[in-house]
Structure formats: structure tokens, C-alpha cells
Amino acid sequence: MTALLSPPAPPDVDARHRRPLTLLATLGGVAAAGSTLVVCLAVGMVGWFLTDAGSHGAPRDGLRAGALGWLMAHGSGISVQGVLVTAVPLGLTLLCAWTTWRLAHRVGDAISGHGPDADRIADGERDWTVPTAAALFAAGYVVVAVVTSSLAASPATGPSTGRAVLWSLAITGCLGVPALAVGSGRAAVWAARLPRPVTAGAAAGWSVVRTYVLVSALAVLAALLLDLGTALNILSQLGVDAPAAALYVLLSLVVVPNAVLFGGAYLLGPGFAVGANTLVTPTAVVLGPLPLFPLLAALPGTGPTPAWTPFLIALPPLVAAVAVARSQRRHPALRWEEGALRGCAAGIGAGVLLGLVTALSGGSVGPGRMQVVAPAAFDVLVHAVTAFGLGGLVGGLAMTLWQRRGARAVMDGADAG
Predict the structure, then answer these.
(1) Strand 285-286 to strand 279-280: parallel, antiparallel, or no bridges (unpaired)?
(2) How far is CA 347 from the centre of its chain?
(3) Which residues of the chain have pLDDT under 70?
(4) CB-based burial label for 244 (10 Å; 0-12, 13-18, 19+)
């Protein structure tokens, strides 16, 4: 009789993917938030020591500064000498997002043995593994945000706990849930049910976003290099020693993603404001007095723009066309309507995503005029949808034409043979 029994599954394989879901998902959320928080606390301590060698204040002041920086990365905003600062350092936010993805992916792999297998899911059985893990992961992350806000807040700083919670839920929802699904293998099962044009269109849209962000970053870098002397002059006027200057440059890096999105808004045409009643576009530049911040050296000079800068608005549709065409090489479309619809939908989706992200890049950074430092978010959304949609349409049709010709040549060769 024992010979008729199926052999048990290897205990080491099952155990590795059937670890306690509740414990792992909750601790994963705590670790995702806590790991980046520890980094910010360490930077705060280093900054406190470098600025005055610890002669003023106490170590808890450095820790509080690091915690407030982490909360600002989660949209909490703070008050500095009675002035509300709402701008989000997106560099820190990206670090938190990347850490969330990595840890959620590991949690997903660890709990992949829970719930029904792929065959049972295909038969229609409900699988609550990812939703349950996502809720617990988000709960752990939010607890860290609430505790940090409670400990770091003071009547003078006043970070918004509600906004920090909302941003924490957004990070775990937009990145934690997909990472859990991918790590647990559920994403592959769900993606197999989607029509091929949908997955191919999503890949093309993501390609448009990635390519345009890269082009915007190169544009900002080129503008900064052209006025590198001005940036170095600004840094020298701050009157800080070498260690403090190095820390200042390091902290400036956390707003580089903001600058890249500002550059993207400039290339699209609507541009951005660096203070109230200011405007920076390819066709007009109106600026006022600016704070001493090295990245601002990349701004063009006030006055008439060069004759070639208005032609920069041709870059977004060109980028969309190239990105869609390259993506379609990996996912061929031989029908005209499929190539056109996929390219246009990918461009529109990329424009919506870029417009929403650009809306998060600005805010108040100081008193008076500096309460308005932001791109023209709605105009950017409209221009991005239009430019990317048209560019994606052209790129999709051009690649369809090229692929149809290639397919016809293959068929003619086969007939001749």
C-alpha cells in the first residue's frame, strides 16, 4: 500500500515558499519604510556634525532633521520659520519606491507557495494571497510613517501626518502590490489572460516614458554644463567649508528628479515657474531674483530666447515615435489598425503618466515669490498627451509599414523557392 502513495514534496522547497504570510508581509512593510528612514537619520547626523562639528544643538536635532527629510519625501511638507515648504524631494521618494519594490518582491517570493496554484487559479478559484499580503505590507509601512511623524513633529515644523499616510499608501499600492504579484508568480498568471495588444501597448507606453525622461535628463545636464562656472560661483558664495559643501551637493541630488521633470515641461512647451510671476519656456523667459542654489545655474537667461529654442518642442513627438517604433520591433503589428491604435494609445497613456508625475514635482520652497516653483501641470498634461499621442501614431504606422514590407519580402522569397 505504501508504494501507491505519492512521495511527499521536498520539505526544503515547500518551506522556502510557504513562510508565514502575515508575519513576512507586515515585517516587509516595516523594513521597506524603516530602511530608508535609517539612511535619512544617518545623513541627518552626519550633516549635524559637519555643519558646526556638534558645537550647537544636540544629536537629536540631526535625527529630527533626517526624519523630517524622510517625511518630506512622503509629501508631508514642513514649516521652516513659519514658512510652509511643500515641495517633495523626488530623489528620496525614488529611493523609497525602489526599496519598496525590492523588499515587496522578496516577500512575494517567500509567500509564493500560499493559495491555489496556477491550474486552480485558471479554473476560477479565488486567490487572496496578493491582496492579503498587500494590505499587511501597507499597514506596516503606514505604521512607520505615523510613528515617525509623531516623534519628529513639533509645533514649529508641523509635518502633515495625513499626507504622509496618503503618500505611503500610494507608494505601496503603485509599487508594493505589483512587486508582490511578480515575486509570487501571480503577475505571470494574470498577464497571460490579457490580450497581446494590451501588453504590447503597455510596454510601448512605458518605453515612451523612459526615453523621454532620459532625453529630459540629458537636456538638463547639458544646460548645467554650459553654465558650470555659474554653479561653482554660487557654491563659493555660500561661504561653507569643503565638508559642508560636499554635503550641500549631496543634498542637492535629491531634487535632481524634480529638475528633470521641469526640463521635460520645458521641452513640451508650457515650461515652469521659478517664483511668482515668472516663466521659463522655449519662447519666453521671465525671471526675478533667485536663491543661491547651484542647480538654478541651468536656467536660461532672462530676455529673448535664441531662434532655435522654439524648435525644441519637436523633440517630444519625435521621442514618442522612436520609442513606439523600437517597442514594436519586439512586438510586431502587421495590421494597420493595430499599429495605429497601439502607438496612439501608448503615447496617450505615457502623456497621462508624465503629466501626473510632473504635477508632483513642484510646490512651495520658501517665502514670498518662492511659494510658486512648479511646472504648468495641466498644460503639461495636455501637451504631453497630444505630442506623445501623435508621435506614437506616426511611429506605430511607420514600423507597421516596415514590418509589412519585411513580411511581404519573406513571402515572395518563399513563393519563388
Answers:
(1) antiparallel
(2) 18
(3) 1-19, 52-57, 115-126, 239-240, 410, 412-417
(4) middle
- Cell numbers that stand for 198 in this block: 494590451
Considering the entire predicted model, what is its pTM?
0.89
CA distance 242 to 37: 26
**369-393: per-residue pLDDT in tens?**
888 899 999 999 999 999 999 999 9
**The 285-286 sheet, strands edge to edge:** 285-286, 279-280, 272-274, 373-375
**C-alpha grid cell for residue 414?**
518563399
Grid cell at residue 82:
513659519
pLDDT digits (tens, 9 = 90+) for 97-125: 999 999 999 999 888 777 665 556 555 55
Q: What is the DSSP string of 271-318?
A: -EEESTT-EE-SS-EE-----S-GGGGGSPPSBPPPTTGGGGGGHHHH
Environment class of 28 (CB within 10 Å of its CB; exposed 0-12, middle 13-18, buried 19+): buried
State the cell numbers at 139: 499597514
The three three-digit cell numbers of residue 251, written as one number: 543634498
Cβ proximity of 392 and 348 under 8 Å? yes
Cβ neighbours of residue 210 closer than 8 Å, sequence gap 6 or more: 323
Q: What are the C-alpha distances in Å from 137 to residues 26, 29, 73, 245, 400?
A: 5, 4, 19, 38, 43
Provide the pLDDT for residue 99: 96
Q: What are the φ/ψ torsions at residue 351 (nearest 5 degrees)?
A: -65, -40
